[in-house]
Amino acid sequence: MPAKSISVVPADQGWALDIHGTSEPRQLFPTLEAAISAGWARARRDNIELHIQPLAGGVRLRAESTNPADCVG
Predict the structure, then answer these.
(1) Cα separation of 48 and 73, whole Å?
(2) Interval 34-60: pLDDT, tens
(3) Is the pLDDT of residue 15 over 80?
(4) How many angstroms separate the CA atoms of 41 and 45, rounded?
(5) What value does the CA radius of gyration of the chain take, rounded to a whole number of Å?
(6) Residue 21 and residue 54: Cα distance in Å, rounded?
(7) Percentage of residues of the chain with pLDDT beyond 90
(8) Three-state DSSP class for residue 69
(9) What share of the chain is helix, strand, coil (3-state, %, to 5)?
(10) Contacts of 11 (CB under 8 A, 6+ apart)
(11) Which of 27, 26, 36, 38 is nearest to 59 (CA)?
(12) Fewer CB within 10 Å, N side or C side of the chain?
């Protein structure tokens, strides 16, 4: 079954990718940056949405494109 979306979320130790719409287990990463990088790669490959849980402090992230719609924050 193809994934419907991916979420980067805090984990007990580090960060995790939750792959929605599949029975795949949660993927764990030691840093937020590693989780986002893996999430972007998977989202691009599968042409699905990547959701990043809001962070305190107003963190802004930008996709490789220059499209303002690719920014979150």
Answers:
(1) 19
(2) 999 999 999 999 999 999 876 655 455
(3) yes
(4) 6
(5) 12
(6) 21
(7) 49
(8) helix
(9) 25, 30, 45
(10) 26, 28
(11) 36
(12) N
Tokens of 1: 């079954």
54 vs 26: CA distance, rounded Å: 19
Cβ–Cβ < 8 Å for 39, 27: no
Identify the pLDDT of residue 72.
Answer: 46
Find the distance separating the first CA and the last CA of the chain, reported in whole Å: 31
* Cα distance between residue 54 and residue 73, in whole Å: 8
Q: Where are any strands of DSSP class E within 21-73?
A: 27-29, 49-52
What is the 3-class SS of 3-56, one letter each residue?
CCEEEEEECCCCEEEEEECCCCCCEEECCHHHHHHHHHHHHHHHCCEEEECCCC
